[in-house]
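pasting for ref
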Amino acid sequence: MRRAIKQSWQPISGASLLALAMLQPLAARGAELPVFDAHMHYNVEARSLLSPEQVIALWRQQGIKGVLATSRPNQGTLDLMATLARDKNSDILIVPFMRPYRVQPDRHNWFSNPEIEKLVEAELKRGVYRGIGEFHIFGKDADAPYVARMARMAKERGLWLHAHADEDAIERILRHAPGVRIIWAHTGMSTGLDKVEEMFARYPSLVGELSYRGDIDGGGKLSPRWRALMLKYPDRFVLGTDTWVTSRWSEVPDILANYRRLLASLPQDVAEKIAWRNGFNMFSEK
């Protein structure tokens, strides 16, 4: 499995990004299907080019009704929440996750860095976060003592984990804390579908997020194997844009248009679950 996605980009202005994102009318891309974006980053690089107001305007224009927000540093997520609160408009649900990164290099050693453990403890005291992640973890690194403690703590507190991980790491986490709820970023990205299906059958607390799963597209329509998997587990998948680099923001309209086009081959109720209902149901107040 790839541990990182390589993508080259050149900085462009926030105004240009927003203009690119709004080139096509939403009605022409299946606006009737709302979206819960379960993988969004408002990282420091994007914050220098896109204001919180511009981000929220983009969500509204693109029919995004809910967002799982995970940013580096976490202040990006908090700023989006504060901006939406000042707007006094409850048309978008922001679900904040606490990301255990201060700077980009933290992704490589966060699980063995005592400073990250202090960061997580301090941030969780805010009492606003619904989960921890997105974090990157692979193979036996998931047996690091802090990963085990964090997984158990998440289960005890009713928090979700958002893991960019291979299947080995996911299974190790679930051995540390059986039943802890995990959003599997990219559904493993390159994990074979036989293994994905096996994992879903074995671990009912596992939810697959679909960004960067290029094999979903089977020649312009949903691939038959993915369609069968979605019909078998209609409550276990969510969508994501994964705006992990700034240039990705300009691709949001095309990403959502592609999701809507592929989901159109599913029964309406299943398409709605994967597009937005599952995300809202996962984070509805009990």
